[in-house]
TrEMBL record:
<keyword id="KW-0238">DNA-binding</keyword>
<dbReference type="InterPro" id="IPR005119">
    <property type="entry name" value="LysR_subst-bd"/>
</dbReference>
<dbReference type="InterPro" id="IPR000847">
    <property type="entry name" value="LysR_HTH_N"/>
</dbReference>
<dbReference type="GO" id="GO:0003700">
    <property type="term" value="F:DNA-binding transcription factor activity"/>
</dbReference>
<dbReference type="InterPro" id="IPR036390">
    <property type="entry name" value="WH_DNA-bd_sf"/>
</dbReference>
<dbReference type="Pfam" id="PF03466">
    <property type="entry name" value="LysR_substrate"/>
</dbReference>
<dbReference type="Pfam" id="PF00126">
    <property type="entry name" value="HTH_1"/>
</dbReference>
<comment type="similarity">
    <text>Belongs to the LysR transcriptional regulatory family.</text>
</comment>
<keyword id="KW-0804">Transcription</keyword>
<dbReference type="GO" id="GO:0006351">
    <property type="term" value="P:DNA-templated transcription"/>
</dbReference>
<keyword id="KW-0805">Transcription regulation</keyword>
<dbReference type="InterPro" id="IPR058163">
    <property type="entry name" value="LysR-type_TF_proteobact-type"/>
</dbReference>
<protein>
    <submittedName>
        <fullName>LysR family transcriptional regulator</fullName>
    </submittedName>
</protein>
<dbReference type="GO" id="GO:0043565">
    <property type="term" value="F:sequence-specific DNA binding"/>
</dbReference>
<feature type="domain" description="HTH lysR-type">
    <location>
        <begin position="15"/>
        <end position="61"/>
    </location>
</feature>
<dbReference type="InterPro" id="IPR036388">
    <property type="entry name" value="WH-like_DNA-bd_sf"/>
</dbReference>
Length: 294
């Protein structure tokens, strides 16, 4: 069986990453017909379909995602080799993809921009989503995850300071509904909660086990929407203590508890963990985290 050409693999990698032939063609500096020819030739060589074609672009099949993993790692290793050959081992450049829970974007965006100030040749992709991105499929270089320590064997997990979380209400809510004296009065109040009974957040699990379902009057999927609902007086809700302390319109209902803390983890894939770009970012992230107001 003939071996696939690296140009074809690199083309497929860019199509999988960007989702369109035109996007890949622009990045690679070739005509879109060349991209299509490379994909067709690679699929013929491998004897399998790598992409589902549809009107919006190309979506990798399972085989395509496997190829993306190999291509991502190979691309990084070629970049390192090229830097060493050219005597530019200190250069940190190219795309850096970081995924995170949305609730700490206000902590991460400043350090990402500072990182770009240090390394102007880096292009940042900062992705926040409810799903867990697959590092083994090359979907990101670094992931910031909350909850139990990740256990995937090919991932490297390092702890970050946990986010302390308390229960708060806006002054507007208290003016309209009063302030509960203790948990025994919670059934007579309104609460803001994530719209997922399988949420891993310890404070939301506590809330669902403490108050009746009828008391949860506002549900949402995005951290920003839940925070806005809390601030607008939709109900009593959870918020990171550092955010609440900076807002004079919020009243503490229950202080942070250790069993509500959300452990945070930096997660990288073993194949990319030691690359200069990832190591530079990890060093910057861990140093910045020392001064987080958590």
């Amino acid at each position: 069986m003939a071996q696939p050409a690296w140009d074809e693999i690199r083309t497929a990698f860019q199509v999988a990453r960007l989702g369109t032939v035109s996007g890949a063609a622009e990045v690679l500096g070739v005509h879109h017909a060349t991209v299509i020819r490379h994909i067709d030739a690679l699929e013929k060589t491998l004897g399998t379909r790598l992409f589902q074609r549809h009107a919006r672009g190309y979506t990798p099949t399972e085989a395509g995602r496997d190829l993306l993993t190999v291509a991502q790692t190979t691309e990084e290793q070629f970049a390192q080799l090229s830097s060493r050959i050219k005597g530019q081992g200190e250069v940190v450049a190219g795309e850096l993809t970081v995924t995170s829970i949305a609730g700490i974007a206000d902590l991460l965006v400043p350090l990402l921009t500072e990182f770009q100030d240090l390394y102007p040749m880096v292009q940042v992709r900062f992705l926040t989503d409810m799903r867990v991105f697959r590092l083994d499929y090359g979907e990101a270089h670094v992931a910031i995850r909350a909850g139990a320590a990740p256990e995937e064997p090919d991932n490297v997990a390092q702890p970050l300071p946990p986010i302390r979380t308390g229960l708060y209400a806006s002054r507007d809510y208290i003016a309209r509904h009063g302030q509960p004296r203790d948990e025994s009065e919670f059934a007579n109040h309104r609460f803001v909660c994530v719209d997922s009974e399988t949420s891993r957040a310890p404070f939301y699990r506590w809330l669902r086990s403490t108050v009746p379902a009828s008391a949860i009057s506002f549900r949402g999927t995005e951290a920003a929407a839940l925070e806005e609902a809390l601030l607008r007086g939709a109900g009593i809700g959870f918020l990171a203590a550092y955010k609440a302390s900076a807002n004079p319109d919020l009243v503490e209902i229950l202080p942070p508890r250790q069993d509500w803390d959300a452990p945070l983890w930096i997660v990288t894939h073993v194949d990319l963990h030691r690359t200069r770009k990832v190591q530079a970012f990890l060093t910057h992230l861990k140093e910045a985290a020392k001064s987080w107001p958590v």
